[in-house]
Amino acid sequence: LASVVYNKPLNRAQDSCSQRCGELLSTCSCQVTCQSLGNCCPDYKEFCLQISPYSGSLMGGKAFLLENTAFNTSSVLTCRFKEKIETRGYIAKDGKAHCISPLLYETGFIPFEVSIDNGLSFPYSGTWLSVHHSKVSDEEKCALVNETKWQYYGTPNTYGNLTVTWTHQALAETHVNIEVWGYHETGDSYSENWLAEWKYLYTLAREIPNTGKLTFTPVPAEGNYSTWDFGILRITPSSYSDGQSNIPSLWSNGHALAWHLGKDFRNDPSAWATAKCMEWDRKEEKLPSFKEEIIDCPCTLAQARADTGRFHTDYGCDIEKGSVCTYHPGAVHCVRAIQASPQYAAGQQCCYDSTGTQVLTHDSTGGSTPDRGHDWGSPPFMKPPRIPGFSHWLYDVISFYYCCLWSDNCQFYMKRRPSSDCRTYLPPRAASAFGDPHFFTFDGLNFTFNGLGEYMLVESDLTSLRVQGRTQQGHLPNGTGAQGTGLSAVAMQENNSDVIEVRYSEDWNLEVLLNQKVLNFSEQTWMDLKGLFLYSTPDQNITVMFSSGSGVEIRGNGGFLSLTVLLPEKFMNHTQGLFGVMNGNTEDEYTFRNKTTLPVHASPQQLFEFGANWAIENGSSLFTYDTEFLLNDFYYGEKHNASFLPVFFPYEDPADPLVGEMVSLCDSDPFCRFDVLTTRSLQVGNSTRLSHQNHRLLVEHLEPVISCGWLDHPINGTKNGTNYLLGSTISFICNQGYELTGSKERTCQASGAWSGDTPSC
């Protein structure tokens, strides 16, 4: 909106983007939309920085180029992140400026400014994307060859040399140092003085040739360094001093520092680890329990993979990558809860076997374990337990080494981290729109609405969630306008989150906009944003995961967007818009803004009136109008184009050769038939048929499943079966010499209770 309305007094002297990026000035613009609108200030590109690469690990030390800059090579370059963290940049021989990213304790887009007068003024600005350390590509790190050996070094049968390798071109110096850093958290758990710190410990190798490889025999670290058991390696040019912060660096993965632990560990690793495990167990005893507030697991693998607003694949056990589940033997797929729990920022993990049922720690060491620290961290980050990756290492991973990997005390770990079952899990409800737009509401009605304009698909007073859709006219193969429309853009926001818009650009590529700026997924496919996470698959399926647990999935296919919105149970009775009132009752699905309703069997013409009623206004629009076409047709034009009248009942002409092909493609799918007839394209019809099929499958996978909860085996006996869902039967047998009283078999009933009585031997 601001991009097109000039109402400031003319003052030519001000019209520079120096320190004004993102603003609209009186004679020109410093907003991201100015390039496509052609109204940028002359120095927009100079002061509003584009950078390459645009992302890197939160550990920092990565150089990035400031494009469109040409500075005097004698200038002193200072880069300031978040208005307080300063790093020293450099200017290459060609005059191009580079900043070094800092060590941060958070992920997401971080604003920065640049000074070339030794920090007096900071006229240039941009944003840097800070990324979870394990989501960064391997080329950007140094590699611990055979990482398991490093992490088990000193335990039985693990000794000898260790090798670290790196891309030597990544550091432009002849000699490098290799340092050891440790991570710890100090202060009282869950209090204001709980703080996180990465600390330089010592230099492992000094002034070695930058060949890209070092092999050494580890010796126990001296003094109190050997008490640090979680840490990382850093390789830096030798010209810098030991432990100097925010300099060009290559970090390794964070790992268990078995290889440098003291003599007490090497002499008897199992006894050392057992003592550590017991100490951890005593600490856990005193900490508040987080298990009551984490979300329960989905009951089945199908539910877990369908609930994309709240659960995401755990990369350590992924069915699409061959189910390599090292820590979860017997599982084929695990998911993690996307959002950390509200108070303690804890995480949930759920694993499933090849039959699609949950694997529980009560039955198997391959079961899923919840996390005191969510692996991905959680906003506002910065302090424990919300530090991405590293808080989780300290509470949930190094303790797993103590109890399960370096000693044989796993029962202590599993007692503190038992799997959650699914008794309280409630699947979300799904609504979809696709094709020549056909709408499937949360309560299961479907209708076709071929309006041309911008409409409210769903809005909720619960979290101020708004999802808006724009439709554009379809085209026939010969290029003339069709008598139908399809979704061309979807924009969304919840509370005061970032605004995400997914749209077809004018050359029909899928674009994702973050607060009006086109995003680039070339480096990162997962982004931690304000109030949401964003994920793009290689074939451009976009998923937006809002902090309430609501999810929006968008796919581009066949020239129109297809969209699915998933809302958790708490949104019941809190929605309105084209996707209806989500309350399990279809009678009030077609509710107008003024609360009047249409009957379930309303005619297409009546439904056209219902759709038109949900047109949005410029004041509440989330869309970006950054081209002449969008301004003329949607910003200055009507929000619902009343002069566009679609076909309500397309005619099937038996003499039309397309009709025969349509019947064999669509069979009895009415939406597929409708779209072939209105667009005269089998491709559009086919993508509608597939979207319809996907929606039906999704709704099927999200059917609620009854679970009766885990059953133990009797003391002095065994049980047969680990499935605790409706209709499953568990049988019990006593050991030799014992007799069974109670029920031999118990079956999970529709009431959610087991039949029979508890057996004993």
UniProtKB/TrEMBL annotation:
Q: List the disulfide bonds.
A: 734-761
Instruction: Give the highest taxon in the source lineage.
Output: Eukaryota
Q: Which CDD domains match?
A: CCP
Q: In this protein, which residues make up the domain named AMOP?
A: 269-417
Entry protein name:
SUSD2 protein
Q: Which residues form the signal peptide?
A: none
GO annotations of cellular component type: membrane
Specify the VWFD domain's residue ranges: 429-622
Q: Which Pfam families does UniProt cross-reference here?
A: AMOP, C8-3_MUC4, Somatomedin_B, Sushi, VWD
The answer to whether keyword S-adenosyl-L-methionine applies is no
Q: What are the SMB domain coordinates in residue numbering? A: 13-52
Describe the location of the Sushi domain by residue ranges: 706-761
Q: Which organism is it from?
A: Neopipo cinnamomea
**Subcellular location per the Swiss-Prot or TrEMBL entry:** Membrane
Family annotation (InterPro entries): AMOP_dom, C8-3_MUC4, Epithelial_Barrier/Signaling, Ig-like_fold, Ig_E-set, Somatomedin_B-like_dom_sf, Somatomedin_B_dom, Sushi/SCR/CCP_sf
Q: Which UniProt keywords apply?
A: Disulfide bond, Membrane, Sushi, Transmembrane, Transmembrane helix
